[in-house]
UniProtKB/TrEMBL annotation:
GO terms for biological process: amino acid activation for nonribosomal peptide biosynthetic process; secondary metabolite biosynthetic process. InterPro entries: AA_adenyl_dom (IPR010071), AMP-bd_C (IPR025110), AMP-bd_C_sf (IPR045851), AMP-binding_CS (IPR020845), AMP-dep_synth/lig_dom (IPR000873), ANL_N_sf (IPR042099). This is Amino acid adenylation domain-containing protein. It comes from Amycolatopsis mediterranei (strain S699). CDD domains: A_NRPS_AB3403-like (cd17646). Residues 1-10 have a biased composition (Polar residues). Residues 19-363 form the AMP-dependent synthetase/ligase domain. GO terms for cellular component: cytoplasm. PROSITE patterns: AMP_BINDING.
Length: 508
């Protein structure tokens, strides 16, 4: 059977594609949730009917367009059905990763103000909570008659914020439909594909892992909760289920390729997507040697532009640094601008700016920050540009090279980290007077966070273990520094600012 793929920009939302698959192949397995290499599963009919019941249940509670639904669930069959049910109800998905610190979850809950929150466990704060499964088993399995409104919000994902608190990025349905449709078409996903979902829910690539396989008639395999960063476990899953496509942060891909018998046990892999961190030539060359039957892609895209906006297919041989982030995907415009807002010629570094149908609406409850980053398009009235704050340049062949940040924002294991947020958490400790957090190369490759601290009058230098414990209650693991360096004072520039370039090497 030929498989249609959604190719027209914003043409069909994800849940409509799942409905089509349920009509075509109702008894085919859609989702498998792994537990110790055994699984429970849902067919396409079961998945669609469960999502329909959830949608009816939500609508009966008055939940509809622009209403937020918090999802505080671990990776499992309920998660997929709930996500699709929210979309069928026309509501807004707000992921609440159960493994985030309570303080961060409490902030997201208070900021997003969900109409209802689905949870299997305890939640911080006194906000509306409904128990998963609740009463929806008795609701109709028929598809609800809810109009699809592409301009309404589909999800809110929270990213690290420069003010010291995470900020919510509000993404409309049409932007998500555009991205998922392109992914299905570009990579040719179909019934033969097995896609692994392992990305933490608080990161937007988790959405393509969850939705693209069931949109295209393939099988979605859900990794065990908390095991998504274990390369040995992931290799077991690849071997057991015959995974054909997977998303990796480069730092995890490096460890995955180093596992014994990786070439043999991941032989079914044909598509590997890398993003969230810079991919270097050494890792790409290693990938080609271990998995010659797979193709490696380098993707780039901020949360504010719906998962990915550029793509580069990495060559199997002769790769050199820097590896390009590629060319704009259809429907997306990429500009590289100088400080005056003029386009930079090839070879000249400027700020990477994005336009097109994948832009987010803006930041939840932060009109000033939205206006600062989402600015009017100078060439097209009524359209906007998103200023990424990333440095880039065009190569003569038309590909883009990513050259780091204009500010201090960094990516750690695929998570966008504002060092200011980590610094704010550190200076909340009574023993810490000042804190500066930088990203530096780790001895084994990849970036790591290094915190430089000065002592307050409140107490002695805290050991690293105590600092990590203090931060663990506020920040996710990717935002906790790997190294802490205590200084008597910070070096200063001639104008009295902290001289970050003069901070000592942690090894010394």
């Amino acid at each position: 059977m030929s498989v249609d793929t959604p190719t027209r920009t914003g043409s069909r939302p994800a849940h409509r594609w799942v409905e089509q698959r349920a009509a075509e192949t109702p008894d085919a397995v859609a989702v498998l949730a792994d537990t110790d290499l055994t699984s429970v599963s849902l067919t396409y009919r079961e998945l669609d009917e469960s999502a329909n019941r959830i949608a009816h249940w939500l609508r009966a509670r008055g939940v509809g367009a622009e209403d937020r639904v918090g999802v505080h669930l671990d990776r499992g069959l309920d998660l997929v059905a709930v996500l699709l049910g929210i979309f069928k109800a026309g509501a807004v998905y707000v992921p609440l990763d159960p493994h985030l610190p309570a303080a961060r979850l409490a902030h997201v809950l208070a900021d997003s103000a969900p109409s209802v929150t689905l949870t299997e466990g305890d939640l911080p704060g006194a906000l509306p909570v409904e128990t998963v499964r609740a009463e929806w088993a008795s609701f109709p399995a028929t598809r609800p008659e809810v109009p699809y409104l592409g301009a309404t919000a589909a999800y809110v994902v929270y990213t690290s914020g420069s003010t010291g608190t995470p900020k919510g990025v509000v993404v409309p349905y049409e932007a998500l439909a555009t991205q998922l449709g392109w992914l299905c078409a570009r990579f040719g996903f179909g019934p033969a594909d097995v896609v692994l979902h392992k990305t933490p829910l608080a990161s937007d690539p988790s959405l393509w892992e969850l939705l693209v396989p069931v949109m295209s008639g393939g099988r979605l395999v859900l990794a065990e909760p908390l095991n998504h960063g274990d390369p040995a476990y992931l290799l077991d899953v690849h071997d057991h289920y015959g995974v054909t496509a997977c998303d990796f942060f480069p730092s995890l891909l490096r460890h995955f390729l180093a596992e014994p018998r990786a070439a043999e046990r991941a032989a079914a892999l044909r598509t590997v997507i890398c993003g969230g961190e810079e991919l270097n030539a050494e890792l790409a060359t290693r990938f080609a040697a271990v998995l010659p039957g797979a193709t490696l892609y380098n993707l780039y895209g901020p949360t504010e532009a719906t998962i990915a906006v550029t793509l580069h297919q990495v060559a199997a041989a002769g790769v050199t640094d820097p590896i390009p982030i590629g060319s704009p995907i259809p429907g997306t415009e990429i500009l590289v601008l100088d400080p005056a807002g003029a386009p930079c010629p090839a070879g000249v570094t400027g700020e990477l700016v994005i336009a097109g149908g994948q832009l987010a609406r803006g930041y939840q409850g932060r009109p000033a920050q939205t206006a600062e980053r989402f600015v009017p398009h100078p060439g097209r009235a009524g359209e906007r540009l998103y200023r990424t704050g990333d440095r880039a340049r065009w190569r003569p062949d038309g590909a883009l090279e990513f050259l780091g940040r204009l500010d201090h924002q960094v990516k750690i294991r695929g998570h966008r980290v504002e060092p200011a947020e980590v610094e704010a958490a550190l200076t909340a400790c009574p023993e810490v007077a000042q804190a500066v957090v930088l990203a530096q190369a780790a001895p084994g490759g990849g970036p790591r966070l290094v915190a430089y601290l000065t002592r307050s009058a409140a107490g002695p230098e805290l050991p690293a273990a105590a600092l990590r414990r203090a931060l663990a209650g506020q920040l996710p693991p990717a935002m906790i520094p790997a190294v802490f360096v205590w200084l008597d004072r910070f070096p200063l520039t001639a104008v009295g600012k902290i001289d970050r370039a003069a901070l000592p090497d942690p090894a010394g």
